Amino acid sequence: MTTLAAENFASFVPAMAHPEDILAIGRHNGHGVLEEMAMVFEVPLPAILTPTSLGELADTVTPFGNPDENLHYMAGVLGYQDSALELAADWVRRSQLLRPLRQSFMRPDLSNAPGLADGVIIGNSESALRRSGAVLLGALGRKEVAMTAVVLGASHGPAFQYLENELVPQIARAADTLAAMQLINSDPKAGLEEIAAEACEVFFDMDMEPGGPLIHYVPAETGLQEVGVLRRALQKYAATPRRWSGAQEDEIWRFDQEGDQIYLVTDAPVLAGEGKLHAAGTAAVLHPFTAVSHIIPTMRELLRHMPGTEAPGSN
């Protein structure tokens, strides 16, 4: 059964979807992107789609932790011809993975957070931080966010230097009287799940309003993945009562299960070779193979937030 708005990432509604709706993403001539990728990489699609059952295909498409290694591996599978690049680019375009988003994670029909939201960036990559930071700074200039939390998974290196010397001072200037804060994780290899869990502690320490809207600023190709991970971390964190500063008793951080609490705003990258550049010439340019590597992880994350699938926080 295919539900409303389930044929691309930009309009996918996890709260209304069924696992098989993932098959409709990018459907063309009767075949969706997931089915075509499974055929090309010669991995049978599981009978029941879950985050775990898609693990074999995910590991086959991106077997390495290093993006450059995955790019060379994918070129070895698909080939180096223009036709291989076009195939990958077609998957990206049909899925709308790189479409700029400004919407609720669970309810993409909601494009604006209610009231003044808090801004969030998490990550451990300098290039991703620069892209997310540019989007956040634009929002701060328009006075769209209140407090800002930047949570970094490294205590040294290029990402740390950029955060300390460039982004945080820029946030402080752009925010005027608005608060900016950073938390440095001492483990430079911290994964997104760990960073998201520490982000919850940052929100608590900053006295961000319990249950208030959050806007996650993030690169387009990882946007839904990262916001989904953060949503699961917040669900887990909200289950334990804590005492807020000035509170007389412990309070549970209210979490809206209907899904209008976490929003995402992404940048607008382009695929290499498409001949389209941002008007200011600053758009990130992605190799088609690099972009494709994010398709199945994004599908797995969406599955984690559908009713009737594995509970949030599961693998």
Structural class estimated from helices and strands: alpha/beta
Shape descriptor reads: globular
Most strands sheet:
6 strands, mixed
CATH class of the largest domain: Alpha Beta
| Tally of domains | 2
As a percent range, the share of strand residues is: 5-15%
Low-confidence sequence ranges: 1-5, 310-314
Mean of residue pLDDT? 84
How many beta-strand elements?
8
Number of helices: 10
N-to-C order of helices and strands: HHHHEEHEHEHEHEEEHH
Task: Work out the helicity level.
Answer: 25-40%
The gyration radius over C-alpha positions equals 19 Å
Physical arrangement of strands within the biggest beta sheet? 1-6-5-2-3-4
CATH topology of the largest domain: Rossmann fold
List keywords for this structure.
315 residues, disordered C terminus, 38% helix, alpha/beta, 10 helices, 6-stranded mixed sheet
